[in-house]
Amino acid sequence: MRRQEIKTDHLLRDPRTGEAIPPKAQPGYYPGFSTLAQKQFWDKKTRQVVLDRVENIPPIRFFTPAEAALLQAICDRVLPQDDRDEAHRIPLVNYIDARLFSGRIDGYRYEDMPPDREAHRLGLAAIDELSRSAHGLGFLEISCRQQEEILKSLHDGKPAAAHDVWKRMPVLRYWMLLLQDCVEAYYAHPWSWDEIGFGGPAYPRGYMRLERGEPEPWEVEEQRYEWDAPAESFSDIYELISGIDEHKATPGQGGTH
Amino acid sequence: MTASRNGAFGKRNGHSHMLGPIQRVEYEMAQYSESDAVDYCIVGVGAAGGVLLQRLARAGLRVVGFDAGPFWDTERDWVSDEAGSHNLYWEDLRITGGPDPLALGANNSGKGVGGGSVHWAAFTPRLHPSDFRVYSEDGVAVDWPISYDDLKPYYELLELEMPVAGPAYYPWGHPHGYPYGPHPMGATGDVLIKGCTKLGVRVSVGGPVAILSGSHGDRPHCIYRGFCIEGCKVGAKASTLITHVPDALKNGAEIRDNSMVARIHIGKDRRVTGVTYFDDGGREHFQKAKAVIVSGYAIETPRLLLNSACPGFEAGLANSSDTVGRYLMAQAGNVVLGRFDELMRMYKAPPAHAMTEEFYETDPKRGFARGFAIQTVGPLPISFAKQMMVAKGAWGWGMRRVMMDYNHWAAIALLGEILPWPENRVQLAEEKDRFGIPVAKVSFTLHDNDKKIIEFGKNKVMEVMWAAGANEVVQEARYAHLVGAARMGHDPRTSVVDGYGRTHDISNLFVCDGSVLPTQGSANPGLTIQALAARTADYLISQGDSIFTSSQRNMERPPVRHNLSPPGTSGRGVPRLK
Question: Are residues B489 and B554 in the same domain?
């Protein structure tokens, strides 16, 4: 009976049974697949860069401890990792901090945006203010669902408070910046490649099986399972970012053609 | 200060400089004195600058190429990793705005020797003959001062020099064949073929791409790892770094890497005298030159011309027409993503490997001028996640879920012609870079014809994706490529340079890069940029010393020099159809 007392609201659920799915070392449909297990087939420089990402997690140098804690809570909802066990969570805040600390930017700034460092600081303050104005509590102290509601109001371009911040920084541009920094950190990590079945670095060996989604001998066949988002969450519902012309909404990455 | 130059190059430090896994640079590079005027300073050793440097050096001219970024040792510097490749791109600050702002990040311009050709996806379609006459044929934009026939011999040369892999018969524009065989298909190519075939649309399969389908001299063939825009560590994808720069150096060219040109100087006779640049340590240098060619691409070229304003040229160099920075273009690059029940694994194979130009030409029934191409793309996980932010509004558990399905998605994209407009322009911002040089400010607006092409084109690409059997189709609006902003033309009142790239205002100042394009078609610009560079080189060589001494403008067409190709490229893999 004691087991039932453990709070499982934040865990994924099996849609057939309604049972919580316990956190895993490696979520996703490719159990046993490990890109890092292939590292002896990578070139030296790539191996060094990827291993460094895993083994030498950068310390927090840009954000204050309070800001880092707040950003952690935001990242936990923007790109939740409750399905990963503690030892296998990807430290998004550290990588975002490292980018801002180094001053690396993507090569441009929208004329209506402050510089990235300032934008992140403003955004953190605004999210906390949104929480205080709606609930009388800081973002760290409200429920996951309430946190999601605040983030969804950014996604919808309709934040209910912190208007002085949004005058200095269009809310959707900030939302894109935040999301972009989160996915750049998460999907740069080899554990995420294992999760999604991406082959990872492939030089000098290369790929042989190009068609029909067939795996290389060292890749793993897909083994799907059904899962529902946690009971208290609604961030698995897809709604387009609204109220904005498409070309104004571009997150502005290169990376295709 | 010569000792501080040439930071990253060559035999120094006791190691060979690797350009790909096999090609080594083991010889000394020329070092020209700063006080002794070289023949040409080339600002930017990218797609155009690399070809210019090679040809001018091979013709015996004394040339120095400057690049703001490093001289890559590809084995030492490049990685097979998306997040680890930021340093290939021009990531210094630019300001972007206007009603439909361009996102200038990542792989739309390069920094480092090879420039954008280091991180292009390497699609190499030619422009169509109609592209040179869009005003005459469609009443929009402007005609080029040159024709397809002027550029055709250079397309043929560069397709051998890169060389280009593709089908034996390419049916669009001026039909032609490719010297190297087509590549095998990956998932996105299969999707494009299937969708187009269902709709009765012809597809070019396995190219045209400047990626080796067979080994070529000291360059190995493609290994289909998919990291093209992260820099081809394999050495299979062409970049001027590996195709032209080695031959340039052997023939006496000097490259100063990590050297940011800040200003072009004008003498009392209103002629260029040289360039000021900053080395990596921030030290200022002046290199004397008899002529200067700006090859900095569509943002940095106008930025440098504007930043070089001086008495007599208050609005910037070569800007008497107030055209420098104007008529900047990007192409519409909407990415259409389809989810399939079966697995795709689109990270394998080069992103660029199949395309169609069936919708390229003006069709009056569609209600807009010009058209578009459809091409394969193969976004790696980070790029795909960013596309899903927009295409599905994914975040939170929704992002995690769609990413777990990454291997079920395939992506193809629109490449649509956006016309040149004067208010789409590069200006100078208040902000300055680390050398104290004002950065570029870019403003962009889509016009009616552009929006119609995007709407029609994106729907057509989605139709292809549905026809291929996708069970969900979404799309993300975006731009691709940058050209224009120092356009060529006959009329000095409405253009910056003439048909050979010589500025109308200053007879020993040239522009040679994507910025000279008056219009862009729906073709990826890389091949055209390199072909234009080869043509400009032929012109400069034909003109000889008169470039350095005379203000006469001889517009006579130069002979096509077939003997200037890098060794081992000319005559290999002869196309069956010319």
Answer: yes
What's the pLDDT score for residue A248? 54
Among B433, B460, B481, the domain boundary falls at B481
In this structure, are residues B357 and B131 in contact, taking their beta carbons and an 8 Å threshold?
A: no
Q: How many other CB atoms are there within 10 angstroms of residue B87's CB atom?
A: 16
Residue position matching structure tokens 């927090």: A60
Closest to B344 in 3D by CA, of A222, A6, A61, A159: A222
DSSP H or E stretch at residue A151:
helix A144-155
Q: Are residues B55 and B140 in the same domain?
A: yes
CA distance B225 to B234: 9
Tell me the mean pLDDT in the region A193-215: 95
Residue B379 and residue B463 share a domain: yes
d(CA B307, CA B476): 35
Cis (ω within 30 of 0) for the bond into B153?
no
Same domain, B150 and B265: yes
| Inter-axis angle of helices A116-135 and A65-78, nearest 10 | 80
Q: Quick one: B191 and B290 in the same domain?
A: no
Q: Inform me whether the pLDDT recorded for B104 exceeds 80.
A: yes
Q: Find chain A residues with C-beta within 8 A of B223's C-beta.
A: 202-207
Interface test with B, best of A53, A82, A104, A108 (most B CBs within 10 A): A108
Q: How confident is the model at residue B461 (pLDDT cuts 50, 70, 90)?
A: very high
pLDDT at residue A29 tops 60:
yes
With an 8 Å Cβ cutoff, are A111 and B441 in contact?
yes
Is residue B117 a part of any domain in this protein?
no
- What lies within 8 Å, CB to CB, of B558 at 6+ separation is B535, B538, B539, B541, B542, B543
- Provide the number of structural domains found in chain B: 2
Which chain B residues are Cβ-neighbours of A241 within 8 angstroms? Answer: 389-390, 393
- Both B265 and B148 in one domain: the answer is yes
Residues B298 and B255 occupy one common structural domain: yes
Residue B206 in contact with residue B185, Cβ under 8 Å? yes
Residues B411, B386 contacting (CB under 8 angstroms): no
Mark whether B262 and B323 lie in a shared domain: yes
List strand residue ranges (DSSP E) for B353-403, in order. 354-356, 372-377
Q: Are the C-beta atoms of residues B287 and B464 closer than 8 Å to each other?
A: no
Does residue B284 belong to any structural domain of this protein? Answer: yes
Q: What is the pLDDT of residues B142-165, one digit of tens each?
A: 999 999 999 999 999 999 999 999
pLDDT above 80 (res B29)? yes
The DSSP annotation for B192-257 comes to HHHHHHHTT---EES-SBSB-SS-BTTBPPP---S-STT--TTS-B--HHHHTHHHHHHTT-EEE-
Distance CA B77, CA B360 (A): 39
**Domain containing residue B140:** 36-74+125-161+239-327+484-560
Per-residue model confidence (pLDDT) at position A246: 53
Report B:151-210 residues touching A (Cβ under 8 A). 184-187, 190
Q: Which of A109, A207, A250 sits opposite B477 (nearest CB)?
A: A250
